[in-house]
Design a protein that fits this description.
Blueprint: H1 3-23, H2 25-38, H3 51-67
Helix pairs in contact: 1-3, 2-3
Length: 70
């Protein structure tokens, strides 16, 4: 397996990312709001503070990636 083929496949996956993100706008916005609220003011962002929102976004990406042809 060549290194060139690996990079070509990685680039192809990255090219699909904007379309996947567009399909998960609601989940991405909810996650962004949660992170912004959790880190507001002098508060520090803690691990798993927005775990529920992150999992929803992750699930949406996974569903969208499976649904789109390669």
């Amino acid at each position: 397996m060549s290194g060139r083929g690996l990079w070509l496949r990685a680039r192809a996956r990255l090219r699909r990312f904007p379309a996947l993100l567009a399909g998960c706008g609601e989940q991405a916005a909810a996650y962004g709001r949660c992170v912004a609220a959790a880190a507001a003011g002098t508060a520090e962002l803690r691990r798993d503070a927005c775990l529920e929102e992150f999992r929803a976004l992750q699930d949406c990406f996974a569903r969208a990636a499976k649904a789109t042809p390669k």
